[in-house]
């Protein structure tokens, strides 16, 4: 079964290779995507989310320390964990859970906590923090955040400059900060309505913290998306035009 999953992952990656200028994903990345511990709900999304290409672009390697900021259900957390291997560590930084509207129901367990308790992901550590209190126990090789940055603009009272500086401080010299998000039209302020953000805004804000722009991956770009619809629109959901920016902390 494991070999079949591996073959399927390799085939999917090969089919998409022409859409990306970067080198083919490393074997340990392919193996991480094909890992049999991943939930079926996650693997069904691979064709849209291109996880192997994303890890290859981010430069994930065995033994690294990776921070998955606001990981949601842990789609990337699980893949990072297998890619960095037993000598690496993944910090899944999640916000305090919201109490349910119905007080008779229990507060849901955050995905990061569930994954960290799973023996298959023994190298995952769940860290509770708000964007304003972002910090991790050790310096990281990579801080990654997927489809979250626009919502930081919707956080009342959040000092985004301070947040990006905290990310900068959390990285080792030469470390990488990757921001993946839904693209908005140039100059559009639609973070709270369409849940998109102008890529130029992200670049300006992150570079202001001291980062150097280190490239863009266009694997998730979609030229048919005119940026006028909300990312949750059924006609577009899962296929929005997304940008993936890599920033590097100078050595």
UniProtKB/TrEMBL annotation:
Signal peptide feature range: 1-23
Record GO biological process: methylation
GO molecular function, one term: methyltransferase activity
UniProt entry tagged with the keyword Transferase: yes
Superkingdom of origin organism: Bacteria
CDD domains for this protein: AdoMet_MTases
Keywords: Methyltransferase, Signal, Transferase
Name of the molecule in the record: Methyltransferase
Originating organism: Phenylobacterium hankyongense
Organism placement in taxonomy: Bacteria, Pseudomonadati, Pseudomonadota, Alphaproteobacteria, Caulobacterales
